[in-house]
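RECORD TYPE: inverse folding
INPUT: structure tokens
STRUCTURE:
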């Protein structure tokens, strides 16, 4: 029997509330709030026609010029990503706290003794938890984000149809939900690489800490940054900004998608090219441009090293 898929299923069933229901509920709540906002506006308008620039929705699609259509398309794409982004934000917290408690909780409730009695190595156990954090949870959350974005466009289509507009031309003909969904899925390998140092650090702390892993995982990097900042003020070192950006942030914030954008040296060039639109930032060229950054691979190597340390520490903690 292949043990690794069994371990992945174990992680999913034990943490299904965080893996699946937390991002799903976040998506459902934001769609519900959007629906409530629409109903409030309908009541306030009392069934009147909705006009944009003095034109009713029914006649709007026939009078829009190319620039107006492009602006409307960008607005729809931005709204689609923003609404779906709530599931991804919840995912960031789920991955953080799951990785932080993955090995610590096994020792705290002594369930590690049961798993130690099975023919399952420490390496496979830790790798199953790392894979759950880096692959399974992001894949589920991204799927929910895409569905939430489609849900928003369905609501917008209903609002447009109620007021005499054609949703196929004013919504689906302008927005790019399928492309956004595909680009989000394509960005998952880059997310994996950028989340590796944070997940590796959290698993290492989870395997090492005897109590209060959250304090160790967060305060140790932060206090180290404060110490480096103090040395900078004393003139011992030139600046503490590098340490905060490349050590503290990479150890604590890597579970948030899009972190690589803050490390890119070409954002100004992208803005000059007009690539800071939703489709520009999510494009394959922009996304996989992160693979040419040394920060990506240095952080990934550090994450792999810390996961290896978590394997060693788990064995040592259990035997000690």
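DESIGNED SEQUENCE:
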């Amino acid at each position: 029997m292949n043990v690794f898929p069994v371990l992945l299923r174990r992680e999913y069933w034990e943490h299904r509330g965080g893996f699946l229901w937390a991002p799903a509920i976040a998506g459902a709540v934001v769609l519900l709030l959007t629906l409530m906002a629409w109903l409030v506006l309908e009541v306030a308008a009392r069934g009147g026609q909705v006009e944009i620039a003095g034109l009713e929705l029914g006649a709007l699609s026939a009078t829009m010029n190319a620039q107006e259509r492009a602006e409307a398309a960008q607005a729809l794409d931005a709204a689609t990503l923003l609404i779906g982004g709530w599931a991804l934000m919840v995912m960031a917290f789920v991955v953080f706290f799951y990785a932080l408690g993955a090995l610590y909780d096994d020792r705290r409730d002594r369930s590690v003794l049961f798993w130690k009695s099975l023919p399952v190595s420490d390496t496979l156990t830790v790798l199953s938890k790392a894979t759950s954090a880096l692959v399974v949870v992001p894949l589920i959350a991204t799927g929910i984000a895409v569905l939430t974005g489609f849900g928003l466009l369905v609501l917008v289509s209903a609002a447009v149809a109620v007021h005499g507009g054609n949703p196929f031309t004013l919504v689906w003909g302008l927005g790019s939900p399928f492309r956004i969904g595909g680009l989000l899925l394509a960005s998952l390998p880059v997310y994996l690489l950028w989340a590796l140092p944070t997940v590796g650090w959290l698993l290492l702390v989870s395997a090492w800490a005897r109590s209060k892993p959250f304090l160790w995982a967060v305060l140790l990097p932060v206090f180290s940054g404060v110490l480096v900042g103090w040395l900078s003020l004393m003139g011992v070192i030139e600046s503490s900004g590098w340490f905060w950006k490349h050590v503290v942030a990479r150890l604590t914030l890597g579970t948030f998608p899009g972190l690589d954008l803050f490390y890119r040296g070409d954002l100004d060039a992208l803005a000059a090219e007009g690539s800071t639109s939703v489709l520009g930032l999510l494009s394959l060229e922009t996304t996989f441009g992160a693979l040419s950054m040394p920060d990506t691979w240095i952080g990934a190597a550090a994450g792999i090293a810390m996961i290896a340390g978590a394997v060693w520490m788990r064995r040592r903690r259990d035997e000690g």
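NOTES: The chain has 16 helices and two strands.
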